[in-house]
Specification:
Strands 1-2-3-4-5-6-7-8 form an eight-stranded antiparallel barrel. 23% of the residues are buried. The protein is built from one helix and eight strands, in the order H-E-E-E-E-E-E-E-E. It has one domain: Quinohemoprotein amine dehydrogenase alpha subunit, domain 2 (Lipocalin, Beta Barrel), CATH 2.40.128.120. It is globular. The protein is mainly β.
Amino acid sequence: MLKSIVIALLPVALAAPGLVVAQSDPAPGTPSTTGTWVGMFASGAGTADVTLRLRQDGTAVTGELDIKGPGGAAYDVPCRGTHEGGRLEIRCAQRGWRTFSATVTNDTMTGTSLGSSSSSGTVFSAQRAKHSAK
């Protein structure tokens, strides 16, 4: 019965112009990472200012990284990863790559950042920008 209903509705769904598929929300009790996050990370070379603009759909996270530090600056660097159970894991294609592993609690994320030329992680923290959507 269910199979015949799905088959019967398929042509309607395919023919419906402007049909929108809704984004899925994060698990209940898990804050979304969607928004702009401003922070920094510290390394042996000094500190770097970081801005992450993230979008979350279910557990999938995509976005862009802006980074300014002693080694120079990079803007609109693509990032992708996951956010599950309050744990954010993203990888950005910055001079090779840079990963961020952080715990997200409401409007704060803290954790570590590791670059492709680094052998150890550096302390990372960020706050959700005040004007940013939750």
